[in-house]
User: Which sequence fits this backbone?
């Protein structure tokens, strides 16, 4: 009886998600069906799990880093980083396109939000790229694709959520994200080089840097770029926890805002408002998904799933391929945070049974979720970017094909070369 109810609730949840019903409502409604059909299960657990899931002190890192990212965007940091990127990549083929990729990589360590990064670059860089002769569709597709780097570079909020759910060291995940982020940055810059060469997208400048020009561009960017170093270093040394690191990031952002004198009261309150909205949406999903995760645990679904998969698929490589295909397809329809909270408690034990490193599997999962945010029909990055740039979805998808290929190749490297994820972690831990 309970298995039947569980299957029905899962189907209902998927249908509601496909109908674009808000994620937390979809999950709560499907979970409520289980409690209604099982009167012997106390309804108090329903409310208890929602409240308890949001009481974890580790989750404080989510609003802290969200606030730090929002404040950074108000302090003039983005403009300083962009000028630095222009100086570094100015002579490369497709100069502004290279700036786009490098800016996302560096801002990933500051904003922590791929949506915020995509919206910001769509406003700042895409108009500039269009003026330089880049097509709107190419500029939009590149902006959305490069924003995928953001959740992979510490302190990505996705890593914090995964660490809390799967009980994996957030510090180790932060460290692993550096290698993954650099891999994707290099892969995209190489792709941009060849595409720009073919299309005639020119460098920003032809001449070499003049004496002192590099330092002039680097100097304003030094202090913003130190934030990821402070966070990762502090966590690794043990000066503060991930949550305390988030608080430090806010203090650091406010200090920069005071020093640069570019943040006014209106911008400050807008940043606070943005933080409250983004945090509320995340924590609502966390609370709802926690109820459903409790149901799955009660019905011993993770254990049953582990036994079935391990007894059916005896090869680790085959398992990883199946998981990647499954997550890529799922990411096309379901928001990454929701799928993470529901599926990670199920899949992490299975991966562990195959001897896959916890950190490596975490990066595989997060990377898949990031690709899902770019993929139609429900890719949030695609719609946010197209909404800002007014690019047609069909044109976006056509231009994004080479980038999809690069992302899948990068995913295969992460999947089958563990050192990409764990090398830096093993070196420093």
Assistant:
């Amino acid at each position: 009886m309970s298995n039947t109810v569980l299957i029905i609730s899962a189907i209902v949840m998927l249908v509601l998600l496909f109908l674009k019903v808000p994620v937390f409502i979809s999950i709560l409604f499907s979970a409520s069906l289980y409690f209604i059909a099982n009167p012997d299960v106390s309804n108090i657990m329903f409310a208890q799990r929602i409240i308890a899931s949001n009481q974890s002190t580790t989750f404080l890192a989510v609003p802290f880093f969200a606030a730090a990212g929002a404040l950074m965007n108000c302090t003039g940091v983005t403009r300083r980083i962009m000028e630095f990127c222009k100086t570094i990549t100015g002579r490369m083929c497709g100069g502004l396109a290279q700036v786009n990729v490098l800016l996302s990589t560096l801002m990933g360590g500051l904003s922590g939000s791929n949506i915020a990064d995509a919206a910001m670059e769509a406003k700042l860089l895409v108009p500039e790229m269009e003026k330089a002769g880049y097509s709107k569709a190419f500029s939009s597709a590149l902006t959305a694709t490069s924003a995928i780097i953001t959740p992979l570079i510490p302190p990505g909020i996705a890593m914090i959520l995964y660490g809390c759910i799967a009980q994996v060291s957030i510090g180790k995940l932060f460290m692993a994200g550096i290698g993954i982020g650099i891999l994707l940055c290099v892969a995209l810059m190489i792709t941009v080089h060849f595409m720009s060469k073919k299309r005639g997208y020119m460098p920003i400048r032809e001449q070499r840097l003049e004496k002192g020009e590099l330092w002039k561009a680097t100097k304003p960017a030094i202090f913003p770029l130190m934030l990821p170093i402070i966070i990762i270093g502090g966590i690794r040394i043990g000066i503060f926890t991930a949550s305390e690191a988030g608080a430090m990031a806010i203090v650091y952002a406010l200090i920069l805002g005071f020093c640069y004198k570019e943040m006014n009261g209106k911008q400050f309150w807008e940043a606070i408002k943005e933080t409250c909205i983004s945090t509320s949406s995340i924590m609502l999903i966390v609370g709802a998904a926690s109820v459903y995760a409790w149901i799955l645990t009660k019905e011993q679904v993770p254990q049953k799933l582990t036994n079935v998969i391990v007894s059916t698929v005896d090869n680790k490589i085959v398992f990883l391929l199946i998981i990647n295909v499954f997550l890529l397809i799922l990411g096309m329809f379901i928001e990454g945070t929701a799928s993470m909270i529901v599926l990670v408690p199920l899949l992490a034990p299975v991966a562990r049974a195959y001897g896959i490193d916890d950190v490596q599997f975490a990066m595989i999962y997060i990377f898949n979720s990031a690709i899902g945010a770019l993929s139609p029909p429900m890719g949030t990055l695609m719609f946010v970017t197209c909404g800002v740039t007014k690019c047609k979805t069909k044109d976006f998808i056509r231009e994004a094909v080479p980038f999809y290929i690069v992302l899948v190749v990068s995913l295969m490297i992460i999947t089958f070369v563990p050192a990409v994820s764990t090398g830096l972690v093993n070196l420093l831990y």
